[in-house]
Structure formats: C-alpha cells, structure tokens
Amino acid sequence: MEPRDVTRSIDLAVIPGDGIGREVVPEAVETLRAALGADAAITTTNYPFGATHYLESGEILSDDDLAALAAHDAILLGAVGGDPRDPRLAGGIIERGLLLRLRFAFDHYVNLRPTRVFPGVVSPLVRPGDVDFVVVREGTEGPYVGNGGAIRIGTPAEIATEVSLNTAYGVERLVRYAFEVAERRRKRLTLVHKTNVLTNAGALWTRLVRAEAERHPDVEWDYLHVDAATIFLVTDPARFDVIVTDNLFGDILTDLAGAISGGIGLAASGNINPDGAFPSMFEPVHGSAPDIAGQQKADPTAAILSTVLLLDHLGMPEPARRIEAAVATDLADRAGAPRSTGDVGDAIRSRL
Ligand SMILES: NC(=O)C1=CN([C@@H]2O[C@H](COP(=O)(O)OP(=O)(O)OC[C@H]3O[C@@H](n4cnc5c(N)ncnc54)[C@H](O)[C@@H]3O)[C@@H](O)[C@H]2O)C=CC1
Ligand SMILES: CC(C)CC(=O)C(=O)O
Ligand SMILES: [Mg+2]
C-alpha cells in the first residue's frame, strides 16, 4: 500500500479523555482545522476512552481499539484520569491501562517536551533569562513498566517494589535521538539521572551517553543529578538546551519546566515513534485537572501547542509556524482578566 500523503490530508484520531481534556481538545482541533485552511484536508475520529468511559462501560482499551487507532496518521489526546480518591479507579487503572498502554503499544520511546518562556509571559522565576530547552524523556521503560509487586498487603509487614527497567536497546535509541536534537539546536546536552544511588541504571545511561557523544564531537555534554537539576531549572534555566533523562525523572522535571515557563497550561508534548511504524501521539503535559474541570478555566494553549508538534512531526511546518505565531501574539497580550478556555481558543484563532 502506498503511504498516505499527509501533506495534503491528515487522518487524526482524537481522544479528549477526561476532565479538562474534554475542554481543551476541541479548541486544539478547531485551531488545527483553521490553521490548515484550504491547504490540507483533515478528518477527525473521536474516541471516548478515559475514566468516564470506563465507569460507564467497563471498557478501557481493547486490542480492536488499538488496531483502529494504529490506522490513523497521528493521535491527539487531552488527558485521562479521574478523581484519585475514587476506589473504582485505584491502581492507576486508566493511566496504566490506557495512556501507558498506548505509549508502549505504539513504541513512543521519545517523549518530547519543549519549554520556552514566550515574550510577554510572566514566569515565577526572578531571572528567567533565555529559557528555551527541550526535555527528551524516555517513554517506554523506567519504573513505568509495571515491574514490581507487593506482599503481605495491608499488614505492617507489607513490602512493595517498583523495579525500573532500563535496557541498552531502549536507552541507546533515546540517547541517539537526543543527540540528534542537540545537533539541530545549540549543541548542548545534559544527562539527568541519579547515578550516585541508582548505580546500575546510572552506569548504563552514562556509558551510552558517553559513547554517543563520541559520534557528536561538536555537542558539548554534561551531567546533573536530578535533585541538582531541579535547582538549576529554577536558578539558571538558560544553561539547558537538551535534557535527556528517564521516564520518571522526565515526568517530574517537565511539570517543573511548565511551571517556570509561565504555567502548566502552556506546556506541550509529543509521544513520538520516530521510526513511523506507529502513529505518534500529541498531548498537553498536564492531566485532567479535576479541581477546575467543567468550569472553562483550563488554559487550552498547551493542547494547541501540541498540535504544532503534531504538524512538525507530519512534515507540515507552515501551518505549525502559523499556530505558533498566533499563540506567541496572544501570549504577548495576555494582561487583564482571566479568560475562559473558549475565549483563549477564539483569541488564538483570530490571530492565525
Ligand atoms: N497525560 C495524562 O493523561 C495525564 C493524566 N494525569 C491524571 O490527571 C489527573 C489529575 O492529575 P494532577 O496530578 O492533579 O495533575 P494536573 O496536571 O491535572 O493538575 C495539576 C494542577 O495544574 C492545574 N492545571 C492543569 N492543567 C491546567 C490548564 N490547562 N490550565 C490551568 N490549570 C491547569 C490543575 O488545575 C491543578 O491545580 C490524575 O488522574 C492524573 O493521573 C496526570 C498527568 C498526565
Ligand atoms: C499519568 C502518567 C502516567 C503520565 C504523566 O504524568 C505524564 O506523562 O506526564
Ligand atoms: Mg506528568
């Protein structure tokens, strides 16, 4: 079968998910459609997956669902997960059974999370400087693989383990990707880990970074323990260009990155399958935010910026730049009363 020409038409799977995912995703889809205009067609197929759907139907994500999703060019996801206090959702049944299942099944081994402070955006940092870095987070391994267990559950003698998986295959391909990103940027790469304590995984990551660095003599690299990295993200974020790190550290650091760049509502991400064997999936960094869900308080900018990553991934830079420029202009003018989710979406689209 001939590959589809995604420069003229996009077949997009849309998973709004739960909570504010259902509010921000329609804004992102509408913005994507407006930015493409007459240049390219887009068809969207909505999938209901998420905690709400699970509570209504008992279904999370079947093999048939996976096969249906695999046929699309890309996936746009809002956020999934319900009230963490709901016992029916205990054990991260949705996060594991849906979100991580998608990332693992579609081999999204690169979790790409760019961070920059757009002009005019108020950062909580005293000296934000030139914040413009990208976190290249491993997406299919680490402590997220479900490798662990518990014994004597509910007794004072309970023991629970969560074993982080790090394979040479998985780390090597991620590190290679990160160096390639650094080559296209300011040629500085920081490995973030905890090699002084997590010595087995740390040795593997360090060895593979060092080996890859030899193939990129023009990329300068350094290393930070993750705890120290949190200091520098707040005190000197301009020192970062590309951060390469594991699944858990990358998850935590990118919420912090969102906060320092003006808010988690601005932080976009892509779960990338670089080989193109499976559709990549784009989503805001944030979750379903039950505390503000249903109130039109969520900032849709992160979801809208996730469509920029989506378009770039599909090789459509012109509409990507149009959305990025519209967001930048809107962010520069954001002073005044807080706006609703829909108003922010409208304002960004009016600037396209
Ligand atoms: N990719 C995904 O689907 C993710 C799902 N989750 C799930 O989401 C649920 C809530 O998780 P939390 O830890 O509370 O993280 P969260 O990111 O949903 O919320 C953290 C804080 O940020 C605020 N916030 C988040 N997005 C915002 C936006 N666009 N505009 C304005 N404020 C925003 C929320 O109101 C909240 O105060 C949980 O079930 C969690 O498992 C969490 C992270 C990622
Ligand atoms: C909900 C988790 C599984 C994922 C997460 O927080 C993230 O990818 O940022
Ligand atoms: Mg997270």
Automatic annotation (TrEMBL):
Cofactor(s) essential for the protein: Mn(2+); Mg(2+)
Domain Isopropylmalate dehydrogenase-like: 11-348
Compartment(s) where it occurs, according to its Swiss-Prot or TrEMBL record: Cytoplasm
EC number: 1.1.1.85
UniProt enzyme class: oxidoreductase
UniProt: Mg(2+) binding residues: 227, 251, 255
Binding site for NAD(+): 287-299
Top-level taxon of origin: Bacteria
UniProt site (Important for catalysis): 144, 194
SMART domains: Iso_dh
Known catalytic reactions: (2R,3S)-3-isopropylmalate + NAD(+) = 4-methyl-2-oxopentanoate + CO2 + NADH
Cofactor, how bound (note): Binds 1 Mg(2+) or Mn(2+) ion per subunit.
Keyword annotations: Amino-acid biosynthesis, Branched-chain amino acid biosynthesis, Cytoplasm, Leucine biosynthesis, Magnesium, Manganese, Metal-binding, NAD, Oxidoreductase
InterPro entries, per database record: ICDH/IPMDH, IsoCit/isopropylmalate_DH_CS, IsoPropMal-DH-like_dom, LeuB_actb
Binding locations of substrate: 103, 113, 137, 227
Annotated metabolic or biological route of this protein: Amino-acid biosynthesis; L-leucine biosynthesis; L-leucine from 3-methyl-2-oxobutanoate: step 3/4
Purpose: Catalyzes the oxidation of 3-carboxy-2-hydroxy-4-methylpentanoate (3-isopropylmalate) to 3-carboxy-4-methyl-2-oxopentanoate. The product decarboxylates to 4-methyl-2 oxopentanoate.
Protein family: Belongs to the isocitrate and isopropylmalate dehydrogenases family. LeuB type 2 subfamily.
Subunit structure: Homodimer.
Protein name in UniProt: 3-isopropylmalate dehydrogenase
Source organism of the structure: Pseudolysinimonas kribbensis
